[in-house]
Design brief:
2 copies of one chain form a homodimer. By secondary structure, chain A is an alpha/beta fold. Chain A has 2 domains: 67 residues, Beta Barrel (Ribosomal Protein L25, Chain P); 161 residues, Alpha/beta knot. Chain A is built from 7 helices and 12 strands. In chain A, the strands form 2 sheets. In chain A, strands 6, 7, 8, 9, 10, 11 and 12 form a 7-stranded parallel β-sheet that branches. Chain A has a 5-stranded mixed β-sheet with strand order 1-3-4-5-2. In chain A, α5 links the parallel β10 and β11. In chain A, α2 crosses α3 and α2 runs parallel beside α7. The longest helix of chain A has 15 residues. Chain A is elongated, with a radius of gyration of 20 Å. About 5% of the residues of chain A have low confidence. The interface between A and B is medium-sized, with 35 and 35 residues.
């Protein structure tokens, strides 16, 4: 397994990269690496680069950027919009959205949202870590929490809003209302409600948007985090970069 | 939200059901319910039943089974075979497999399996809890951990073994080797390796099985738990009960 590290852009061949205290700790103490050893670094923009550790200490260190190891691979233009839930499950959604190739992650506050604030920096760090783990060269940005209403009132005209309506799941007639075959192409977003579902007002508001495309996720009721992973998977397999 | 409780089979109309100490604690202390209130109970075989709390104490209680509230819904004949990983992620796989409609969950020990034992009773309890949460009437059985070799040597002749080969993911040529369009129908199983992947021997062994059907899950490397959810989703949407 190659050790991978996200560093601040931009990278180029021959560049010297200063390590933060946390990065130096990770390489030296967690991964037990030493000067002279190699790893892969990426900046989210210019692909994956082979780098060599030049110096490594308690407070920092230096990497030397060698050659490009693999080209940049950006995900399709797919956003994930979700209502934050319990901490572990919110972390999970950010991790999975990164692995599955979301380009942007937008937390929204809804009527029944379980938490009214998020730690944006912590969630962004989760996205970085997931990209390091999954061999990606792209890190989705995690935006600040915003009210669903505000997001909807300025929703881009050309971007489909794929709406996993939990009212559809668990309903024997669900298939009549929307199926995976109707998934719109990019630019698109997947909107996942909180554990308590959307309010009637919210649901009506979403459905009036011409960009809204309801989908159903089978006959069982899925938790919000499961619905996020399932919807991202279906979209990537049908409309994204899995095909 | 209707409170749902799994109870031991078989249920029938008019039946009196004795609560365990844990069930009584859950209804009385966690859900704050009292005698006279109603809930839904299910036994995994006969659908969901409306029940009324007759007695509720510290050490147990009694429910009265009213009428059938919804028919039994069994998932398609799909197994999930997976190598246990870290505790939280193993719990997660069992929860998600239940929600997404796996009929049977088989943990296997592989060459690079991170843990060589599981708490079968705890994982089974997770499956019960997930079925309670997701409105399901079926609970998949979680089998005892067994060596992958032994499972493969007695693999049922008519059951496809869908094999998420992590060697395929992250490979630009992945699509040439297997895509979601080749997913075989039920009876089927999805096999997910451990974080370290399968060994070369294991991979060769799996590929010699005529029942083996490799699939790829996109250009990024997925964690084992993500791969399990993604593969279950794709199968259900294409071959299972989401269509």
């Amino acid at each position: 397994m190659v050790v991978r590290l996200f560093v601040n852009p931009p990278l180029h061949e021959g560049q010297s990269v200063a390590l933060t205290r946390e990065q130096a700790h990770y390489l030296g103490n967690v991964m037990r690496m030493s000067p002279g050893e190699k790893l892969e670094i990426f900046d989210g923009q210019s692909g994956g680069w082979t780098a060599r550790i030049d110096e490594l200490g308690k407070r920092g260190g230096t990497l030397h950027t060698y050659a490009l190891a693999r080209p940049q691979r950006d995900p399709p233009d797919l956003w994930l919009v979700f209502a934050p839930i319990k901490k572990a499950r919110t972390d999970f959604i950010v991790e999975k959205a990164t692995e599955l190739g979301a380009a942007r992650i937008l937390p929204v506050a809804t009527r029944f949202t379980n938490s009214d604030r998020i730690r944006q920096d912590r969630l962004q760090a989760h996205a970085v870590e997931a990209a390091e783990q999954c061999g990606g060269t792209f890190v989705p940005s995690v935006e600040a929490l915003q009210p669903l209403d505000r997001l909807l009132s300025s929703w881009p005209q050309d971007r489909a809003l794929i709406f996993a309506d939990e009212g559809l799941s668990g309903d024997p007639d669900w298939a009549a209302d929307g199926t995976a075959s109707t998934l719109p192409p990019a630019p698109a977003a997947i909107l996942i409600g909180p554990e308590g579902g959307f309010s009637d007002d919210e649901r009506a508001r979403i459905r009036t948007l011409p960009q809204a495309a309801p989908i159903a996720l089978g006959p069982r009721i899925l938790r919000a985090d499961t619905a996020a992973v399932a919807a991202l998977t279906l979209w990537q397999a049908k409309r994204g970069d899995w095909t």
